[in-house]
Amino acid sequence: MKTLTAKQNIWQVIFASSAGTLIEWYDFYIFGSLSSIISEKFFPPSNPELAYIATLAFFAVGFIVRPFGAIVFGHLGDKAGRKYTFLLTLMIMGGSTFAIGIIPSYATVGLVAPALILVLRLLQGLALGGEYGGAATYVAEHSPADRRGYYTSFIQTTATLGLFVSLGVILATRTSMSSESFNEWGWRIPFLLSILLVVMSYYIRIRLQESPLFAQMKSEGKTSANPIKESFGNKENLKLVLIALFGATMGQGVVWYTGQFYALSFLQKTMNIEFVQSNIIIAIGLLLGTPFFIYFGGLSDRIGRKKIMMAGMLIAALAYYPIYAAMDNIGNVNKKVELKDAFRIENKSHRNDAGEMVTVTTRVHTYDDATILNETDGKKEITVSMKNMTFLVLLVFIQVLFVTMVYAPIAAFLVELFPTRIRYTSMSLPYHIGNGVFGGLLPTISTILVTQYNNHLAGLIYPIAIALICFVFGVVMIRERKGEAL
C-alpha cells in the first residue's frame, strides 16, 4: 500500500499529530501539576492530608476511564477515520480543561465544586483515551516500515513535553505574581490558556488528509463492521491484546508515572521541597531526557522494540530504591544536626489584591549548607542548595531515561501487533489500561502506602512489583515484529 515518503509530507503529519497530542497532555497534566493547590481549593479544609489523597484519586479517575475512551473512540476511529476522531477528542479535552479554570471553589459552592471537578476529569479521561491511539496510528500508517520506530517516537515525546509545558506555564504564572495571588486566583490561568492552544491545534489538524492506509481500505469497502467485536471477540486478537497489556504497557505505564509524576509528588509532598524549586528540578530533568525518546525510537528500528522495552523495565525496577533513598536523604531534615534555637525570624510585607497591607512571618532554620527549612504560617517547606539541587536533577534525569527506553518504542510495537482494520481499537485499549489504570493509579497507591507504613520509600513497592511482573511476561510472550508490513 502507498505511504507518504517525502520528508516534507511525513514531517507535516508528525507536526500536526504531535502538536495536538502535546496540547491534550498539557491539558490533562495541569491538574496533576497543581494537585497541591487544587486539594486546598476544591475540598473541605478540615483534613488537608485526606484532601490531597482525594485530589490524587480524582486525578486517577481521569486515567481509569481512559480504557472506556479507547473503546468508544477506537471504534469510531476504525469506522469513521483517524482524522475525524482525534479532532473530536481534542475539542472535548480543551473544553473540559478550560471549564476547570472557571469552577467556583469549595468555599463558594461547597460540595458542588468537587462534583464538577469529577465530571470534568471523566471527560478529560475519555478524550485522552481516544487521542493517543489515533495520533500514533496516523503517524505509523504514514511511515516507511524501516523508520516506523523513529517517526512514531516523536508522538512519544508529547506526553513528557506536555508535562514540561504545563510546568513551564505554571512556573511562568507563579513567578509573575506573589505567592498569595497565585494561590488565590493565578493557578487558574494555565487552565484558561488551554483554550487558545486547542484552537491553534484544531486549525493545524483540520487541514490534514485521512491516513492513506485507512482511506484505501475504506474505498475498497474493507473497513470493520464491528471493530470492538473483532478486537476482543476474536480469540487470536484478544491474545495479542493481553500480550500487549501484560508484556509491555503495564510496565511501561508504571515506569512513566514513577519517573515523572511520582518524582514530582515525592519532591513536593514527601521531601517538602519548595514549590518553584521542585518544579524546576522536574522541568530540567524532563528537558534533558526528552531527546532520548528519539534516540531509542530510532534504535528500536535497528535492534528491535522488545530488547529496549524489557531492559528499561528491569533497570528501572532495580534502580528505583537507591534513587529514591538518595533523594529522601537530601530532604530529610530529621537526619540533620539541628543547632537548638538556630533560626531567624523574617517579616515580609506586601499589599494584597484588595490593597491591604499584609505581613507574613517566616521562621527560617538553617541545618547545613544544603537544606533550609522554612515555616510560614504553619506550613513547612525546604530549600536545597545548588549542589543538592543539581544532584536531584541528575536523579530525575536518570528516571526519565528509563521512561524513554520503555516508552519510545511502544507506539511502533503496538501498531505492528494489530491489523489495520481494527488497529485503532485494538492498540488503544491495552495502552490505556496499562497507562491509565496501572500507571495512573500509581501516585494515589504510592501515597497511601507511604501514609500506611509511615515509610517514605514504601510507595516504591507498587511500581517495582508491576515492572518486574511485566518484564517476565514480556520476555516470555512477546515476539519481535519490527519493520513488518502493516
Automatic annotation (TrEMBL):
Signal peptide: none annotated. Keywords: Cell membrane, Membrane, Transmembrane, Transmembrane helix, Transport. The chain crosses the membrane at residues 12-31, 51-73, 85-103, 150-173, 185-204, 238-258, 278-296, 308-327, 391-415, 436-454, 460-478. One of its GO terms (molecular function) is transmembrane transporter activity. It is a multi-pass membrane protein. Coiled coil: none annotated. The keyword Kinase does not apply. Residues 13-482 form the Major facilitator superfamily (MFS) profile domain. This is MFS transporter, MHS family, proline/betaine transporter.
